[in-house]
Design goal:
298 residues; alpha+beta; Heat Shock Protein 90; 9 helices; 24% strand
Length: 298
């Protein structure tokens, strides 16, 4: 929608009346006033508005018995930050609508599985692994919805003491890992004080990115190192090095090099790790993502 700056006499309008004129929605002429700038001494009022054309603005002011002295079309220069914020707002609105449409079928699936389990205990016992896989899939989808919805806000984390192996195994479970990719797990046993579901999302994203970077062939080596005040979990892969110009942007909101990527995966990982009081580091030769977490969450 075109943006205009108009100028007319302030007249007898008070500040309260001007504020009341700032409506949330466009009027019947398609005019939406975003901001008013006035000078009481000079008796001048400027309005920044969006409108279909100049004629629409003139009609808008006619209903207030005001005649514009000037109506100037203007261009807006948006910073990258503003553009990203607008995109995030759109994503947030879309996610809110979609979450309702997705969560309803998930609830039906969950209830149906519960009924099958209750009415057919023998069938459940014979297929317990399949049932658990379906329950876990429903839980994961629901959690991913929560992550997207909570992207603009901070979701409350549920910290528990958990074995690193349990989180890693859960991250890999259900993931389609190509037969030509080897995932080497840590040899040492380490426990983490973290939100299990959120950290699983972090590890799943990092492992999935490594698989995609290696074009379904290669090796992922996961190592864990416990220091005096921190725990480091590194994910080393045999894929190509990440270009330096990409490394500097890889955690930027909505940045992606993938045709179908959203640009939310790695930045969500960064947000989650920072909520845990930690950080993520990246280095090349070999390509390694390292999650560094404090031993004690403050």
């Amino acid at each position: 929608m075109p943006i205009f700056l108009d100028m007319h006499e302030l007249g007898d309008y008070t500040k309260e009346q001007l504020v009341a004129g700032l409506e949330e929605d466009a009027d019947e002429f398609g005019v939406l006033v975003h901001q008013m700038l006035f000078n009481e001494k000079e008796n001048i009022l400027h309005c920044i508005c969006t409108a279909p054309d100049v004629a629409a603005i003139e009609k808008h002011h006619e209903k207030f018995n005001v005649k514009c002295k000037k109506i100037i079309p203007i261009n807006q220069i948006k910073t990258d930050k503003v553009i990203k914020e607008e995109k995030l707002k759109t994503i947030g609105e879309l996610s809110s609508r979609l979450s309702h449409d997705i969560r309803n079928p998930l609830t039906i699936l969950q209830t149906s599985l519960d009924v099958l389990r209750s009415n057919n205990p023998e069938t459940y016992e014979k297929n317990i692994s399949r049932f658990n896989t379906m329950y876990d899939a429903i839980k994961r989808i629901d959690h991913q919805i929560s992550d997207v919805l909570g992207f603009l806000g901070t979701r409350k984390l549920n910290f528990t003491e958990t074995d690193l192996d349990d989180i890693l195994n859960s991250s890999i479970e259900g993931m389609k890992i190509p037969t030509q990719i080897v995932v080497e797990m840590p040899q040492n046993k380490i426990s983490l004080n973290c939100d299990f579901e959120s950290m699983r999302t972090v590890f799943s994203n990092i492992i999935l990115n490594a698989i995609q970077a290696m074009n379904d062939t290669g090796k992922i080596i996961i190592k864990a190192l416990k220091k005096e005040d921190s725990i480091s979990i590194s994910f080393e892969n045999s894929g190509p090095a990440i270009p330096e110009k990409i490394i500097s942007k890889i955690f930027d909101t909505l940045f992606t090099t993938k045709q179908e990527g959203t640009g939310l995966g790695l930045v969500s990982c960064k947000n989650i790790v920072e909520q845990h009081g930690g950080k993520i580091e990246i280095k090349n030769n070999p390509t390694t993502f390292t999650v560094i977490l404090p031993q004690k969450i403050k």
